[in-house]
Amino acid sequence: MSRKKKRLSREAEKSVSEFANKAVLSILEMLDDGKEVPGMCLNCREKPGRLAYGLMVYDNPWAVESRPMHTCSSKCFEELFYTSELSFFRCTDCGRYIRSYNPANPLEEYFAEEDGLKVCLKCIEEPEGSGDAV
Ligand SMILES: [Zn+2]
Ligand SMILES: [Zn+2]
């Protein structure tokens, strides 16, 4: 019975994150005006990247500058940002999209989970309220 319970809670968590992803993807599809950006889709590398299917991302929680990453479709967007090995996460505290792992050392994660939500290491290090507003 406990195994079933565990599976149910995992499914609940999964459906919450799937719901969030679907909401993001449908917003992106609404934003798609067909505009292309220089460079190929960073996921399939076959089609040009499109403006609507991109995000400003940070390579690590302490990076000062973000950079744009574009894909060609909502499918590629989903794969690159949520399901690829070097995926990105959205920090619950600062709202930035940040690489999930250190590319040089994939065992080093750039986030910690609090109540099932991902928070970047920078937000965890900093006491509350001492953010950008200072
Ligand atoms: Zn693509
Ligand atoms: Zn953060």
Q: How would a textbook summarize the main sheet? A: 4 strands, mixed
User: What is the CA–CA distance across the termini?
Assistant: 51 Å
Pick out the low-confidence regions.
none
**Global outline:** globular
**Structural domain tally:** 1
- Radius of gyration, Cα only, in angstroms? 16 Å
Give me the secondary-structure category: alpha+beta
Q: Please give the share of residues in helix.
A: 25-40%
Please report which band the strand proportion falls in: under 5%, 5-15%, 15-25%, 25-35%, 35-45% or over 45%: 25-35%
Q: Indicate the mean pLDDT.
A: 84
Q: Encode the helix/strand succession as letters.
A: HEEEEHEEEEEEH
Small-molecule binders here are: zinc ion
Strand order, main sheet: write it out.
4-3-6-5
Number of strands: 10
Supply the number of helical segments.
3
Describe the fold and architecture.
It is a single chain. This protein has helices spanning 2-31, 74-83, 121-125, and strands at 36-40, 48-50, 54-58, 67-70, 88-90, 97-99, 101-102, 105-109, 111-114, 117-120. With 134 residues, the protein is α+β, with helices and mostly antiparallel strands. The chain has one domain (2-125). The mean pLDDT is 84. Bound molecules: zinc ion (ZN) (2 copies).
